[in-house]
């Protein structure tokens, strides 16, 4: 009888998971380029999120994501021209753990639309 009682107490706990943990990934953007960024959109695989414009050397406030990886889709404008960082996929990548992170974004406007941006992940 005691064994049955213990099983009834343990089994419900096994089925529980902490889904809120992924909701606690906060990301901000830092513009480490010499250019001002406008109309910024980031997608960490859960949908597009708009960020405010960022002047050169500045950073945004944090935004919360359901999940994120060490890199992401980023699209922005520099002097009216669109630049895009387009990941192929996230196969083999692990999601970021709970915490605050910064995507440092740099730009080289001498390159093409899809090769001009670079992103570096920083754990804050």
Short description:
The protein is built from one helix and eight strands. It has one helix spanning 2-14, and strands spanning 25-31, 38-43, 48-51, 63-65, 73-78, 81-85, 99-107, 117-123. Strands 4-1-7-8 form a four-stranded mixed beta sheet, with no helix packed on it. It has a four-stranded antiparallel beta sheet with strand order 3-2-5-6, with no helix packed on it.
Work out the number of β strands.
8
- Mean pLDDT, to the nearest integer, reads 87
Basic shape: globular
| Beta-strand content | 35-45%
Q: Would you list the SSEs in sequence order as H and E?
A: HEEEEEEEE
What does this structure look like?
This protein has one helix at residues 2-14; strands at residues 25-31, 38-43, 48-51, 63-65, 73-78, 81-85, 99-107, 117-123. With 124 residues, it is mainly beta. A hairpin with a 2-residue loop joins strand 5 and strand 6. It is globular, with a radius of gyration of 20 Å. Residues 5-22 have low confidence and may be disordered.
List keywords for this structure.
1 helix, 124 residues, 8 strands, single chain, mainly beta, 10% helix
How are the elements arranged and paired?
Layout: H1 2-14, E1 25-31, E2 38-43, E3 48-51, E4 63-65, E5 73-78, E6 81-85, E7 99-107, E8 117-123
Parallel strand pairs: 1-7
Antiparallel strand pairs: 1-4, 2-3, 2-5, 5-6, 7-8
